[in-house]
Design brief:
Blueprint: E1 8-9, H1 12-24, E2 29-34, H2 40-52, E3 55-60, H3 80-89, E4 94-96, H4 100-103, H5 122-125, H6 129-144, E5 148-152, H7 156-168, E6 174-178, H8 198-203, H9 206-219, H10 224-237, E7 240-249, E8 264-272, E9 275-282
Parallel strand pairs: 1-4, 2-3, 2-5, 3-4, 5-6
Antiparallel strand pairs: 7-8, 8-9
The structure holds pantoate (PAF).
Length: 288
């Protein structure tokens, strides 16, 4: 079975021994942090990592600190053996899959807050989320000390939060974003898509279609508010409970009103049944 072949380590000490050997031979090391339940979106990040560097580490750790007590930590899909097979197929060099205590000893008491960028969008309805992400990613970056770490653009706010944290704390790692990978009908790939019922799965692409239409409207010079109002109505009609639908500056996430004259993205999060979906797209031609 392929999964028996891929090298997997569970402790920071083992990870560091291997990384130290790679460093001696001058390898450029890339980390792709994940929570497992790997899909084509994750695999595209690993492929990107292989283009950028010489040795690729994928971490698999379902981070309890980024889930609120009422969220899906318990039911989050865990598909470890299948993940290893997929990673083996694309020749990942090493998997780091620490047990909970290796990451959070019982008296763990340090938390990282990235102010500003963590507020708004997902930070409003999930106030615990970015602190939990920043803390675990800071630890993973310290444990692995890669040259580059790669995160998906789908969690765009997360990407900016992590990039800011790495800069502010002088972590000495370059944070790179990888493009969103979509199903044929436009739905952004996500481990949580597995929660969708067949009927919800049919309606789910509406989220992407809606933000894409808003982005195109903005690129045509239309005003933000009517486009967002229309988008809200359309999502409601498709059965979504919208958490947010907003246009923000792509570099600092500042809200944008009126018309888009800067680098901008359209961001959305919505519940479809019990599944929380998020997505974002760039406003075409807004990078000026
Ligand atoms: O995007 C994810 O899968 C997680 O938030 C991350 C970055 C691996 C931290 O747990």
């Amino acid at each position: 079975m392929a999964s028996k072949i891929i090298k997997t380590v569970r402790t920071v000490a083992e990870l560091r021994t291997i990384i130290a050997d790679w460093r001696k031979t001058g390898h450029k090391i890339i980390l792709v942090p994940t929570m497992g339940a790997l899909h084509e979106g994750h695999l595209s990040l690993v492929r990107l990592a292989k283009e950028i560097g010489d040795r690729v580490v994928v971490s698999i750790f379902v981070n309890p600190a980024q889930f609120a007590p009422n969220e899906d930590f318990g039911s989050y899909p865990r598909t470890f053996d299948g993940d290893l097979d997929k990673l083996h197929e694309i020749s990942t060099d090493l998997v780091f899959a620490p047990p909970r205590d290796e990451v959070y000893p019982p008296d763990f008491s340090t938390h990282i807050t990235v102010e500003g960028l963590s507020d708004g969008l997902c930070g409003t309805s999930r106030p615990h989320f970015f602190g939990g992400v920043a803390t675990v990613v800071a630890k993973l970056l310290n444990q692995c000390r890669p040259d580059v770490a790669i995160f998906g653009d789908k969690d765009y706010q997360q990407l900016l939060v992590i990039r800011r944290m790495a800069r502010d704390l002088d972590l000495g790692v370059e944070i790179v974003g990888g493009p969103i990978v979509r199903e044929k009908d436009g739905l952004a790939m996500s481990s949580r898509n597995a929660y969708l019922t067949a009927n919800e799965r049919e309606r789910a692409p509406q989220l992407h279609l809606t933000i894409e239409e808003i982005a195109e409207g903005l690129a045509d010079g239309k005003s933000i508010k009517p486009l967002l109002d229309e988008g809200h109505a359309r999502l409601k009609e498709a059965g979504f409970d919208v958490d947010y639908l907003e246009v923000r500056n792509a570099e600092n996430l500042a809200p944008i009103d009126g018309q888009v004259q800067e680098s901008a993205r359209v961001f959305a999060a919505a519940m479809l049944g019990k599944t929380r979906l998020i997505d974002n797209v760039a406003v075409p031609g807004s990078n000026r």
